[in-house]
Specification:
single chain, 292 residues, alpha/beta, TIM Barrel, 44% helix, binds coenzyme A, binds magnesium ion
Length: 292
């Protein structure tokens, strides 16, 4: 998944527009973009939208961001949307593997009630939105086969930390958020799931978005969340492996195929070893997979 576009669940117009945005995934939002007195209307709208969208082909991967486990809203969210068979839920304010096990149990009950196969609905966790969460990012491995990806957030975290800002004057994340980003990346790799980069909220600044996509791809993120349709083509472009990168990966795979017993080989004057081979294989697999 390269691009995941947030859409407030109470806006039918934006939901329709999002379907045509070219995003690999849509995140129908019941959490922060929905005011408390609009939650019920948003749930109904989300369920109606999903029921129709799930049956469309081709279609983006469909997620719903529910409210967090510590709110008294999540059960009603799940009751409203499970029967509409979203591909995955996004769990905000997750605090490690225990949160995933908790949501997994809630989902198993709904799946049984709706006649869905156990494990049908996957989970993408936002792993860095509370201070406590930062200390638990290493605990996602093995929590549930539903876990598909980890992503991270700086907005809620900065409020919790009591910070005045989360970016510097040039728009780059400050230290506490760079730590959160790195922990997300390492937690996802440890759990063997995708890492997805956080949103770039200044949607008029395509230059800044490009820079952040390039840095995220370089560091190992598989994709990035978006808040506006204009961000989608940029994210798709920058997270699609270039022909040059694919050719280089293929050359590494070929070099090891010709020297199957070698731990390291020389390629164009540079040493490549087994970790390079694994990375090359992952890149080729990602490129061969369907976008979502
Ligand atoms: N999904 C689908 N369509 C969107 C969209 C989104 N996330 N954001 C904007 N659009 C649509 C608008 O409805 C508008 O449609 P129109 O041309 O048919 O009127 C068009 O794209 C251009 O939008 P624009 O005028 O540039 O922005 P806006 O002022 O309408 O909306 C936001 C700005 C930030 C409110 C909007 O982008 C948004 O709702 N983003 C998602 C917010 C969210 O989910 N946040 C939670 C996660 S952090
Ligand atoms: Mg939030």
């Amino acid at each position: 998944m390269r691009s995941l576009l947030f859409v407030p669940a109470d806006s039918g117009k934006k939901l329709d527009k999002a379907m045509a945005s070219g995003a690999d995934a849509l995140i129908v939002d019941l959490e922060d973009s929905i005011a408390l007195d609009r939650k019920e209307a948003a749930r109904k709208n989300a369920a109606a939208f999903l029921a129709e969208a799930v049956a469309t082909a081709p279609r983006p991967y469909l997620l719903v961001r529910v409210n967090g486990l510590k709110t008294d809203l999540i059960d009603a969210d799940l009751d409203a949307v499970a029967a509409a068979k979203p591909d995955a839920l996004m769990l905000p304010k997750a605090e490690g593997g225990a949160s995933i096990i908790h949501l997994d149990a809630k989902l198993a009950v709904r799946e049984a009630l709706c006649g869905l196969p156990d494990g049908h609905i996957k989970i993408v966790a936002i792993a860095t939105e509370t201070a406590a969460a930062l200390f638990r990012v290493g605990s996602y491995a093995g929590a549930s086969a539903r876990l598909l990806a980890l992503t991270w957030g700086a907005e809620d975290l900065s409020v919790e930390l009591g910070a005045e800002a989360n970016r510097d004057a040039q728009g780059r994340f400050l230290d506490p958020y760079r730590l959160a980003r790195t922990l997300c990346l390492a937690g996802a790799a440890a759990a063997e799931v995708m890492a997805i980069d956080t949103v770039y909220v200044d949607f008029a600044d395509s230059h800044g978005l490009r820079r952040e996509c390039e840095e995220a791809r370089r560091d190992g993120f598989a994709g990035k969340m978006a808040i506006h349709p204009a961000q989608v083509p940029i994210i798709n472009e920058l997270f699609t492996p270039s022909l040059k990168a694919l050719a280089q990966a293929q050359a590494i795979v070929d070099a090891f195929a010709q020297n199957p017993a070698a731990g390291a080989v020389g390629l164009n004057g540079v040493m490549v070893d087994r970790p390079h081979l694994n990375r090359a294989k992952r890149l080729l697999q990602r490129a061969a997979a369907k976008p979502r």
